[in-house]
TrEMBL record:
Organism of provenance: Pontibacter actiniarum
Domain Histidine kinase: 69-262
MF-aspect GO terms: ATP binding; phosphorelay sensor kinase activity; protein dimerization activity
Membrane-spanning parts: 6-29
E.C. code: 2.7.13.3
Protein's UniProt name: histidine kinase
PANTHER family found in the cross-reference section: NITRATE/NITRITE SENSOR PROTEIN NARX-RELATED (PTHR24421), NITRATE_NITRITE SENSOR PROTEIN NARQ (PTHR24421:SF10)
Record field: catalytic activity: ATP + protein L-histidine = ADP + protein N-phospho-L-histidine
Lineage: Bacteria, Pseudomonadati, Bacteroidota, Cytophagia, Cytophagales
C-alpha cells in the first residue's frame, strides 16, 4: 500500500508532462503552419505581381512594334499608293489599268497588315494565341524588318500550358530576341520550340559576338529590373530551367526548359547538341 501514492504521483507527473509535450508540439505545428502559409501567400503574391508586370511589358513591346510597323510598313505602302495615284494619266490617253491593279494589290496587303496589327493590339493577344503562333509571329515581324534573318522551327505535338506560364515564356523570348538585336550584332536568329513527353524545350540562338561569361554573371547579378535578372527570376517562379551561354565559334544560346506538371522531371542536358538542329 505504501507504493500506491508514489505510483499515483508518478502517473500524474507523466500525464502532466505528456500534456505539456502535446501542447508544445501543437503550438509548434501551428506556428510552422502559419509561417508556411505566410510564405506561400508571399510567393503567390510575388507570382501574381510578376504576371502583371510581364503582361504590362508585353503590351508595351507590342505597342512599340505596332508603332514601328505603322511607320515602316503601312506608311510606305500608303506613300507608294499615293505616288502611283499621282502619276495616273487622267486625260485618258494612257490606260491606267496596270497602275490601278498595282495600287489595288498594295492596298489589299495594307488592309491585311492592318488587321494583323489590330489583333496584336488586343490586350489579351497572348492569351488567345498558342505559344507556337506567338513565337512564329514574333520571328516573322523581325524578319520583315530586313535587318536580319529570323527563323522559327516547331518540333513535336503541341501541349497546352497555363496562360500565366505562356505569358512568362513569351516575355523571356522577347527579352532574348531584344538582346540579340541590340547587343549581339547578329545577322541571323533561330528559335526552336520542341515539345517532349514531359516538358517543352525552347531555344533561341544567334550568330552574334556572343555573351562573355563575366558579362553574363555581372548582368544576372545586377539590380532587379534588368533583362537577364528578370529572365532568371521568371524561370524560377514557374519552375523552369534557364541556360544562357556563349556558342562556338560565335553567338549566344538561350535555352528554356519548362516541365508540364512538376520540376522534378529528368532535365535535358544543355551541353549536348541541340534537338532543334
Amino acid at each position: 500500500m505504501s507504493d500506491v501514492p508514489w505510483i499515483i504521483g508518478a502517473g500524474t507527473a507523466l500525464l502532466l508532462g505528456l500534456s505539456i509535450f502535446i501542447t508544445l508540439m501543437t503550438l509548434t505545428y501551428q506556428q510552422r503552419r502559419l509561417q508556411h502559409r505566410k510564405e506561400l501567400d508571399h510567393l503567390t503574391m510575388a507570382y501574381q505581381r510578376e504576371i502583371l508586370q510581364a503582361r504590362l511589358e508585353a503590351q508595351e513591346q507590342t505597342l512599340l512594334a505596332v508603332s514601328q510597323e505603322l511607320h515602316d510598313n503601312l506608311g510606305q505602302q500608303l506613300a507608294l499608293i499615293r505616288l502611283h495615284m499621282s502619276t495616273l494619266d487622267m486625260t485618258g490617253t494612257q490606260p491606267p489599268g496596270q497602275k490601278v491593279q498595282f495600287c489595288k494589290e498594295v492596298l489589299d496587303q495594307a488592309v491585311t497588315d492592318l488587321r494583323h496589327l489590330s489583333r496584336r493590339l488586343n490586350s489579351r493577344h497572348v492569351d488567345h494565341q498558342s505559344l507556337p503562333d506567338l513565337l512564329r509571329d514574333l520571328l516573322q515581324s523581325i524578319q520583315k524588318t530586313g535587318v536580319l534573318t529570323a527563323t522559327f522551327r516547331l518540333q513535336g505535338q503541341e501541349q497546352n500550358i497555363p496562360a500565366e506560364k505562356k505569358l512568362l515564356v513569351f516575355r523571356m523570348v522577347q527579352e532574348a530576341l531584344s538582346n540579340s538585336i541590340r547587343h549581339a550584332a547578329a545577322t541571323s536568329i533561330r528559335a526552336c520550340l520542341a515539345y517532349h513527353s514531359d516538358k517543352l524545350l525552347l531555344q533561341i540562338s544567334d550568330d552574334g559576338k556572343g555573351i562573355k561569361p563575366s558579362e553574363l554573371s555581372s548582368r544576372v547579378g545586377s539590380s532587379e529590373g534588368s533583362g537577364l535578372f528578370n529572365m532568371h527570376y521568371r524561370a524560377k517562379l514557374m519552375g523552369a530551367r534557364l541556360l544562357i551561354r556563349r556558342q562556338e565559334p560565335r553567338g549566344t544560346l538561350v535555352s528554356i526548359e519548362l516541365p508540364y506538371y512538376t520540376p522534378n522531371t529528368t532535365s535535358y542536358d544543355h551541353n549536348q547538341s541541340s534537338p532543334c538542329g
